[in-house]
Amino acid sequence: MTTPSMNRRRRYWRRFVGGLCAVTLSLQMGCYTFKPLQAGVPATGNRIAVVLNDRGRFTLGDKLGSAVDNVDGLLVEVDSASVTLEVYRTTDMRGGTTTWTGERVRVPKDAIVGYQERSFSKRRTYLLVGTAVGVIAATMLMANLNLFSSVSRPDPTGGTTGNTR
Asked: For domain 32-119, which architecture applies?
Protein backbone atom coordinates (compact mmCIF):
# COMPACT_ATOMS: atom_id res chain seq x y z
CA MET A 1 0.00 0.00 0.00
CA THR A 2 1.33 3.41 -0.96
CA THR A 3 0.82 6.19 1.55
CA PRO A 4 1.05 9.94 0.89
CA SER A 5 4.29 10.14 2.88
CA MET A 6 5.83 7.40 0.70
CA ASN A 7 4.87 9.35 -2.44
CA ARG A 8 6.41 12.49 -0.95
CA ARG A 9 9.64 10.65 -0.20
CA ARG A 10 9.78 9.24 -3.71
CA ARG A 11 9.24 12.72 -5.11
CA TYR A 12 12.06 14.13 -2.93
CA TRP A 13 14.32 11.24 -3.90
CA ARG A 14 13.65 11.83 -7.61
CA ARG A 15 14.37 15.55 -7.21
CA PHE A 16 17.58 14.75 -5.36
CA VAL A 17 18.74 12.34 -8.07
CA GLY A 18 17.73 14.82 -10.81
CA GLY A 19 19.67 17.58 -9.08
CA LEU A 20 22.66 15.29 -8.71
CA CYS A 21 22.56 14.52 -12.44
CA ALA A 22 22.29 18.23 -13.30
CA VAL A 23 25.29 19.08 -11.12
CA THR A 24 27.32 16.25 -12.62
CA LEU A 25 26.53 17.36 -16.17
CA SER A 26 27.38 20.98 -15.43
CA LEU A 27 30.72 20.01 -13.89
CA GLN A 28 31.85 17.60 -16.60
CA MET A 29 33.93 20.33 -18.26
CA GLY A 30 35.29 21.47 -14.90
CA CYS A 31 38.78 20.08 -15.33
CA TYR A 32 39.81 22.36 -18.22
CA THR A 33 39.90 26.07 -18.86
CA PHE A 34 40.90 28.31 -21.77
CA LYS A 35 43.70 30.82 -21.17
CA PRO A 36 44.50 33.70 -23.54
CA LEU A 37 47.75 33.35 -25.45
CA GLN A 38 50.12 36.30 -25.41
CA ALA A 39 52.24 35.04 -28.31
CA GLY A 40 51.24 34.38 -31.90
CA VAL A 41 49.68 31.24 -33.32
CA PRO A 42 50.18 28.11 -31.16
CA ALA A 43 51.78 24.95 -32.50
CA THR A 44 49.70 22.50 -34.52
CA GLY A 45 48.19 19.60 -32.60
CA ASN A 46 47.03 21.79 -29.68
CA ARG A 47 43.43 22.19 -28.58
CA ILE A 48 42.64 25.89 -28.90
CA ALA A 49 39.77 28.34 -29.15
CA VAL A 50 39.78 31.06 -31.79
CA VAL A 51 38.02 34.32 -30.94
CA LEU A 52 36.44 35.86 -34.04
CA ASN A 53 35.99 39.53 -34.90
CA ASP A 54 33.02 41.03 -36.78
CA ARG A 55 34.62 40.33 -40.14
CA GLY A 56 35.16 36.70 -39.14
CA ARG A 57 31.55 36.31 -38.02
CA PHE A 58 30.38 37.65 -41.37
CA THR A 59 32.89 35.63 -43.43
CA LEU A 60 32.27 32.33 -41.63
CA GLY A 61 28.54 32.85 -41.01
CA ASP A 62 27.54 30.39 -43.74
CA LYS A 63 29.91 27.67 -42.41
CA LEU A 64 29.66 28.10 -38.64
CA GLY A 65 26.36 29.90 -38.14
CA SER A 66 25.46 33.49 -37.45
CA ALA A 67 26.84 35.39 -34.45
CA VAL A 68 29.57 32.83 -33.63
CA ASP A 69 32.05 34.35 -31.20
CA ASN A 70 34.36 31.42 -30.32
CA VAL A 71 35.46 28.35 -32.27
CA ASP A 72 36.93 25.51 -30.18
CA GLY A 73 38.91 22.77 -31.89
CA LEU A 74 42.17 21.05 -32.69
CA LEU A 75 44.67 23.17 -34.61
CA VAL A 76 45.52 21.13 -37.70
CA GLU A 77 47.32 23.50 -40.08
CA VAL A 78 48.75 27.00 -40.07
CA ASP A 79 49.79 28.98 -43.15
CA SER A 80 50.47 32.65 -43.82
CA ALA A 81 46.81 33.55 -44.49
CA SER A 82 44.73 31.17 -42.36
CA VAL A 83 44.49 28.48 -39.69
CA THR A 84 42.62 25.20 -40.08
CA LEU A 85 40.73 23.70 -37.14
CA GLU A 86 38.91 20.44 -36.51
CA VAL A 87 35.93 22.08 -34.83
CA TYR A 88 34.47 20.50 -31.66
CA ARG A 89 32.31 23.36 -30.38
CA THR A 90 31.22 26.86 -31.28
CA THR A 91 29.95 29.52 -28.88
CA ASP A 92 27.70 32.31 -30.09
CA MET A 93 27.50 35.91 -28.85
CA ARG A 94 24.73 35.04 -26.37
CA GLY A 95 26.72 32.19 -24.79
CA GLY A 96 24.89 29.31 -26.51
CA THR A 97 27.07 26.42 -27.61
CA THR A 98 26.84 24.02 -30.54
CA THR A 99 28.69 20.71 -30.56
CA TRP A 100 30.56 19.66 -33.69
CA THR A 101 32.19 16.35 -34.62
CA GLY A 102 35.58 17.48 -35.89
CA GLU A 103 34.73 18.99 -39.27
CA ARG A 104 37.62 20.98 -40.71
CA VAL A 105 37.12 24.71 -41.09
CA ARG A 106 39.65 27.18 -42.50
CA VAL A 107 39.62 30.50 -40.61
CA PRO A 108 41.35 33.52 -42.23
CA LYS A 109 43.87 35.22 -39.93
CA ASP A 110 42.30 38.64 -40.53
CA ALA A 111 39.05 37.23 -39.03
CA ILE A 112 40.72 36.36 -35.71
CA VAL A 113 40.97 38.60 -32.64
CA GLY A 114 43.04 36.14 -30.62
CA TYR A 115 43.75 32.59 -29.58
CA GLN A 116 43.03 30.80 -26.32
CA GLU A 117 44.80 27.60 -25.31
CA ARG A 118 43.02 24.80 -23.44
CA SER A 119 44.85 23.90 -20.23
CA PHE A 120 44.31 21.57 -17.28
CA SER A 121 42.96 23.29 -14.15
CA LYS A 122 43.96 21.66 -10.86
CA ARG A 123 41.66 23.90 -8.81
CA ARG A 124 38.57 23.02 -10.86
CA THR A 125 39.48 19.33 -10.77
CA TYR A 126 39.81 19.37 -6.97
CA LEU A 127 36.47 21.16 -6.73
CA LEU A 128 34.82 18.59 -9.02
CA VAL A 129 36.23 15.60 -7.12
CA GLY A 130 35.38 17.16 -3.73
CA THR A 131 31.80 17.83 -4.81
CA ALA A 132 31.37 14.29 -6.13
CA VAL A 133 32.77 12.75 -2.94
CA GLY A 134 30.57 15.00 -0.80
CA VAL A 135 27.42 14.10 -2.72
CA ILE A 136 28.21 10.39 -2.51
CA ALA A 137 28.92 10.63 1.23
CA ALA A 138 25.69 12.59 1.83
CA THR A 139 23.67 10.06 -0.15
CA MET A 140 25.17 7.16 1.79
CA LEU A 141 24.50 8.94 5.08
CA MET A 142 20.88 9.64 4.16
CA ALA A 143 20.36 6.05 3.03
CA ASN A 144 21.86 4.70 6.28
CA LEU A 145 19.62 6.96 8.36
CA ASN A 146 16.56 5.73 6.42
CA LEU A 147 15.62 9.22 5.35
CA PHE A 148 14.31 7.81 2.06
CA SER A 149 12.18 5.00 3.44
CA SER A 150 9.00 4.87 5.46
CA VAL A 151 9.32 1.31 6.67
CA SER A 152 9.50 0.83 10.43
CA ARG A 153 11.82 -1.84 11.68
CA PRO A 154 11.70 -3.56 15.07
CA ASP A 155 13.99 -2.27 17.79
CA PRO A 156 15.94 -4.95 19.71
CA THR A 157 14.76 -3.35 22.96
CA GLY A 158 11.12 -4.06 22.14
CA GLY A 159 9.95 -0.79 20.56
CA THR A 160 10.04 0.32 16.94
CA THR A 161 12.46 2.65 15.20
CA GLY A 162 12.22 4.54 12.00
CA ASN A 163 9.38 6.57 10.67
CA THR A 164 6.05 5.65 12.24
CA ARG A 165 3.81 8.16 10.44
From this structure: Roll (2.30)
